[in-house]
Amino acid sequence: MTRTACVFTALLAVPVLGPAQTVGPRPHVVIRGIYGGVPQEILDSGRSLQEFGVNAVWLGSGSFTAERVALLRAQQVRVFAEFNTLHVAEYLKDHPDAAPVGADGRPSPPPDGWQGVCPTHESYRRSRMAAFKDLLERFEVDGVWLDYHHGHASWEQTAPNMPDTCFCDRCLRRFQDDSGVRLPDRPTAERAALLLSTHRQHWARWRMDVLTDWVREFRMILDATRPAALLGTFHNPWSDEDFGSARQEKLAIDLRAQAAFIDVFSPMPYHARFGHAGDPQWISRQVAWLGRYLGLTGAAGEQRRIWPIVQISDWGESVPLEQVEAVLDHGSLAPATGVLVFAWGGLRTHPEKVEAIGRTFRALRGPAAPSR
């Protein structure tokens, strides 16, 4: 064990007194989760995840092992996987034709280092579907959350960088076949200009339909392989009005269409990262908008659910200790029926924040509420 881990464990071994708790039991909140790895430091302290009110953990699909699943099952928590769909940048090393093409007809540089993949590349899609199926076959997961399922863009920051893509020959051919719109036999840049002006609505609709069809296929595989598991999605938290409908027109995310296949929507209202560091209430405003948009109230028995993932670790702007309860408070208000914390990797060296998460999770659970 490293010196840092020893210090973390020593601090966790003695419960830390915090400010008076204002959040009380919320029976509608059935999930209190940690994203980003096994909270090993908690276990090394001799305390259980149940003691911290944690009843669910999300791991990256590439980090799953039988031993980790068994460890988490022994802690009586649900185990969910995060699955990368359109951001496996390594694939481009051997398949450069899978790179998204910009409006100038050239491969689009990765915006701020974020490298996407063309969603109509047949071989890439088959490889992701095969990996998804393999994950479900090998591990007894309670669900899989799609991640990075959006167009080639770096949106997870205060000023998003969202180039227009993909105008490769394959996409242009499929767009014409699917939409019935005919483009002139002109250079790619001229065709792209038409798609971003005269045919903008058709183009945006087609791009969203392509990504929704991926979700349909993921659902089909899940139902055939592990039908009791949930299909979730980590997605952009903007409303239709934010950034000029960019969630739809730039990122190609149609939440209502995806709702035909998705069980749980997990918006990512990272308030500090996205320019709302002093306004945790922004979290509940965005979640409330999503509920209205999808027609969800958080009532028992709803087929679709909202479990936002909220920022408590520092990323860009820091999240102060005194804000932890407010963040979880606003993340767990209806229509949310679950809330999960981003991200364990950034919390490992902040035991005081982990203690604050535990206090709030226990308060949400209530003293007599059974663990789920």
Describe what is shown at a glance.
The chain is 38% helix and 11% strand. With 372 residues, it is of the alpha/beta class. The longest helix has 26 residues, at 200-225.
Describe the overall structure:
The protein has a 9-stranded parallel beta sheet with strand order 7-6-5-4-3-2-1-9-8. The chain has helices spanning 3-13, 40-44, 66-74, 91-94, 122-138, 169-179, 188-195, 200-225, 246-249, 255-258, 281-294, 324-331, 344-347, 351-365; strands at 31-35, 56-60, 78-84, 143-147, 230-235, 264-267, 305-306, 309-311, 338-342. With 372 residues, it is α/β, with parallel strands linked by helices. It has a single domain (3-365), classed as TIM Barrel, CATH 3.20.20.80. The protein has 14 helices and 9 strands. Strand 1 (31-35), helix 2 and strand 2 (56-60) form a beta-alpha-beta unit.
Please state the average pLDDT score.
Answer: 94
Strand content: 5-15%
Tell me the overall shape: globular
What structural class do you assign from the helix and strand content?
A: alpha/beta
Radius of gyration: 21 Å
Biggest pleated sheet? 9 strands, parallel
Helix content class: 25-40%
Summarize the helix and strand pattern as letters.
HEHEHEHHEHHHEHHEHEEHEHH
Count of individual domains:
1
What CATH first level would be assigned? Alpha Beta
Number of strands: 9
